[in-house]
Design goal:
Length: 761
């Protein structure tokens, strides 16, 4: 019953696309505002670490149009927003730990008045010593959470038997999310001290929980609603909550609607980013270049509070060996507390940071041994039956198939000889090529989070309302949900109305994150649809008087019993169900089977499945200027059986370019005193159309896909970002073509300045 509608929709467009183009898609700031709405501005700490000595906001609060100024003392509940660890106040009390840390909430009749009031606040803060370097924080014992260590085999003994050993340091910078829509929320008081909150969040339940905690009320009095958000990339997995809590606090205390929407500059300063990492590696190979042992120590820059950093740290360890099998591994990770804004989830969630380190180690080894890195990469690929350092056994491994198909289909040797020719005929322009394999585990690493629910109603006219816990953030999940409902009922896509994500319709949601949103919510939705469908099939059998064993199906809105089409429309079927007083609503539930993880031994089976792929990245470096561009990126990606190729391709292209931006030009800079220098989009360089590779080719690896993926269509959100890591090595190889003695420090972003230094270093 699946075939025809699935094929019809497998190439379908994102259903939101026309509305994005004509400007009618509704984001937070597009909501009509209620009369009497109040606007909130947040006063952030001007310095990165200090003790608040005095705050005087008397004059500010007397300005015309200022409604109220709120400090931590006004919080009716607990002044605490820490999700994993309770270490972060909503509003600072005595100490500020990072520049931009919220201190006061200013409510006024307009944003302009709130801004004027903010200028009038008199605040004295005694500066305290600032640490921004994670290694220094580690030395001084400033850790956000317990250090973690994953082990396989015995590295000490293994290194003794190695023919070659290389050691070094690798670093990756942070990354600003630059979601198009900044953080924000709009909170409306409802009767009996309840609140209705529109929030630009990936995690409606996280918002609900945080608001209830701040207000000292129960979650049942807080209703959170999300229509869609203008990008998240992890930045709104946890860090949407404080801004919703600000709006909620204002609305609760004034009993008026309050809107808190950050401007870009506040968003850049006040919110956390991808965690920067600095790491040490040691890699040991035998005489045939098999990687026999690998050790790494990761120092994660967590910022001033734990936020999601402990979970991110864990994913660094899960992906520390990328798509390679190494029999002896020891990896240790430290989450270091520094005086920058608390860092948070960002597409890949610590995985990319870990993968960069082993790629650097392999590149280091291959350079020292005078072999092509691709030789070492290919030789050490994962294969079925071996063990990941966390105990899961490799199954359905697509690492080698992706790699080999990339080599064959894109004619690697031909590409390499073209580059050699180019490099031998150009003195000051060199091309470089790198292969970047990826392996990414799908599931929240916290097993409990791998559950979801959905609610389906069929209305009496045959139209269908669908609610899930999935948040649409541009990734196309709503289109996939509509496809699933249409397919399960065998009706056309236009019958399906996808509702907002709302905590009263679907409760206890996991955030839309970990690439798992379509799988988890899609499977819950499928469950709900199938419950109703089973009731409808029973009715059909009754109407045509056949036995339970006779197969019924609905396909393209036609009802079939066995070989015969039944003379009944979808609307008539629904009417019949109502007349028979059969429920046309259902709640679906899904919990990923099989997965588990035991942190006490750091072993288990944490992932439902893995996603694989290989990219070939070709760059051209201007050896006089250090600037570069990308000629082409050619990818073989393991989509399983894609349920929507257009959407999945969009995720690959976007993820690739976002990853390349992280590795090449996106440079977060803090002054030694912790002040953020890269605080506008004029001094923080995200990829633009000129940075996009001139050619991006993506080919689907022909495989079945996993049963734990919805319709065997594998998760596609985060994995492609990691192809971008290859940008470093592609540029590095061009640099080496110019100067074989170039000093590479394996430090990303590899900005043109850094490239220039390497060319002549
Ligand atoms: N969020 C989370 C994530 O809480 N746990 C995860 O494992 C994860 N992975 C990727 C992105 N967000
Ligand atoms: Mo994410 S980094 O999947 O919110």
């Amino acid at each position: 019953m699946r075939s025809s509608s699935q094929q019809a929709s497998a190439t379908g467009k994102n259903l939101d696309a026309p509305f994005h183009v004509n400007g009618t898609s509704c984001y937070l700031d597009d909501l009509p505002e209620l009369a009497g709405t109040i606007y909130a501005k947040v006063l952030g700490s001007p310095i990165a670490h200090g003790r608040i000595q005095s705050i005087d906001y008397q004059a500010a609060s007397e300005l015309t149009g200022v409604v109220r100024i709120i400090s931590y003392q006004d919080i009716p509940g607990e002044n605490q927003i820490g999700g994993i660890i309770a270490d972060e106040p909503l509003l600072a009390e005595e100490i500020v730990d990072f520049q931009g840390q919220p201190i006061l909430l200013i409510l006024a009749e307009s944003e302009a008045i709130a801004e004027v009031a903010l200028e009038q606040v008199d605040i004295a803060i005694e500066p305290l010593p600032v640490i921004i370097d994670p290694r220094e924080a580690y030395q001084k014992g400033h850790l956000l959470s317990g250090s973690r260590s994953f082990q396989l085999g015995d590295t000490d003994t293994a290194f003794e038997g190695c023919e070659y050993i290389f050691e070094g340091t690798a670093e990756t910078g942070g990354q600003e999310h630059v979601y198009l829509e900044p953080q924000g929320a709009y909170a409306i008081p409802t009767e009996r001290k309840g609140l209705f909150i529109y929030s630009s969040t990936q995690g409606p339940t996280a918002v609900q929980r945080t608001v209830a905690r701040i207000l000292g009320t129960s979650m049942s009095y807080v209703e959170v609603d999300v229509n869609r958000i203008g990008g998240g990339f992890g930045g709104k997995e946890d860090q949407a909550s404080p801004w919703a809590a600000m709006a909620a606090l204002g609305a609760f205390l004034t009993q008026k609607p309050v809107k808190c929407l950050l401007d870009r500059k506040d968003d850049l300063t006040m919110t956390g980013k991808r965690n920067p990492y600095t790491s040490d590696y040691k890699i040991g190979l035998d005489k045939d270049f098999n990687i026999v042992a690998y050790e790494a120590t990761y120092y994660q820059n967590g910022g001033a509070a734990a936020d999601l950093s402990p979970a991110i740290l864990e994913r660094t360890l899960f992906h520390g060996t990328n798509s390679y099998f190494v029999p002896n591994v020891r990896m240790t990770a430290h989450s270091c507390r520094t005086n920058i804004a608390p860092n948070t989830a960002f597409r890949g969630f610590g995985g990319p940071q870990g993968m960069f380190v082993i790629e650097a180690a392999i590149h280091h080894a291959s350079r020292a041994l005078g072999v092509d890195p691709a030789e070492i990469q290919r030789k050490n690929m994962l294969k079925n039956g071996v063990e990941f350092p966390y105990g899961q056994i490799v199954e359905d491994c697509e690492a080698v198939p992706c790699w080999d198909q990339a080599v064959d289909q894109y004619q690697l040797s031909h590409l390499q000889s073209e580059i050699a020719t180019y490099n031998s005929t150009n003195d000051f322009s060199k091309k470089g090529l790198a292969l970047m394999p990826i392996c990414f585990g799908i599931s929240f690493t916290n097993t409990q989070m791998n559950q979801a629910r959905a609610l389906v109603h069929i209305y009496s006219d045959g139209s269908i309302g669908v609610s899930t816990g999935a948040v649409e953030m541009g990734q196309g999940v709503n289109t996939k949900m509509v496809q699933i409902a249409a397919q399960e009922f065998g009706v056309s896509l236009d019958r399906i109305k996808l509702e907002t994500t709302n905590t009263t319709r679907v409760a206890n949601t996991s955030p839309s994150a970990a690439s798992a949103t379509a799988d988890l919510n899609g499977k819950a939705l499928k469950d709900a649809c199938q419950q109703i469908r089973a009731r409808l099939f029973t009715i059909i059998r009754e109407v045509v008087a056949v036995e339970d064993s006779v197969e019924v199906m609905i396909l393209d809105e036609k009802i079939w019993v066995g070989e015969n089409q039944v003379d009944m429309t979808w609307e008539q079927l629904i009417q019949t169900a109502l007349s028979k007083r059969v429920s046309l609503s259902a709640k679906g539930h899904y919990a990923t089977p099989r997965i588990h993880f035991d942190k006490t031994v750091e072993k288990g089976h944490p992932f439902a499945y893995h996603v694989y792929g290989t990219a070939i990245l070709i760059s051209t470096v201007d050896c006089l200027r250090g600037t570069y561009s990308f000629d082409a990126v050619k990818i073989i990606h393991d989509f399983g059986t894609s349920m929507n190729r257009a959407i999945d391709l969009g995720q690959i292209e976007g993820g690739l370019v976002q990853g390349m931006g992280w590795i090449t030009t996106e440079e977060l800079m803090h002054r030694p005193d912790g002040i953020l220098l890269s605080n506008t989009l004029a001094n923080y360089k995200i990829p633009d159309i000129y940075a996009v590779p001139k050619e991006i080719e993506v080919e689907f690896l022909p495989t079945d896909g996993s049963d734990l993926a919805i319709y065997k269509s594998k998760a596609v959100g985060e994995p492609p970002l990691m192809y971008g890591i290859g940008a470093y090595f592609s540029i590095a190889n061009a640099v080496l073509a110019f100067n074989p003695k170039a000093k590479l420090n394996y430090r990303a972003p590899f900005t043109p300045e850094e490239v220039l230094m390497a060319l002549y270093g």
